[in-house]
Design brief:
This protein has 184 residues and is of the alpha+beta class. It has helices at 7-80, 84-96, 129-140, 177-183, and strands spanning 101-112, 116-128, 147-155, 163-175. A hairpin with a 3-residue loop joins β1 and β2. A 4-stranded antiparallel sheet has the order 1-2-4-3. It is rod-shaped, with a radius of gyration of 43 Å.
Length: 184
Amino acid sequence: MTRLNFRGNSASLILTVLVSGGALAYAVFVFIPVRKTIAGNRVRMTQVREEIMEGDRLRLSLWTMDDELKAAQEFNRRWRQWDAKEILPKITEAAAADDRLTLERLDPHPHSNDFLATHEVEIIVSGTFSSVAQFLTRVESINQDHVEVTALSLNSPAGNGEHVTCELTLSIRGENADFSEKTE
């Protein structure tokens, strides 16, 4: 029987076992956990980037909504400041601005419900075609939030188109002041 001699090789064998054990311990206790941590951090970093990008999109949406809210508040402010008593003289002024135009009738018919006050105004003007067209432009520019042309008819009694008669109905709408005072 032959005996194996480990004495000469025992130091190198122990060294090999220790180095292998150290490498295995490093792999198990250091390398693999750090690798998992790095992978988890990469996933979290991707999520944070997505959250930041979503935040930028939401910030843009909020700015857009803020602009829309400001526009709505400005419209509401203008809506509450209306007064038909101020608009009717402006219609008269629009007719008087051209001496080729005659205001034949300005007949307001007020209506109101709880919230909305409406004045249907029947107007008849006559004059040259261009003076009637300019009058309509001036009336349209008085207050576009409240004034709307609901009916329009142009007639030329002479048949030549030089002198025309315009019959129109304006609808002037706004907040009913009596209702506003009750709710405030």
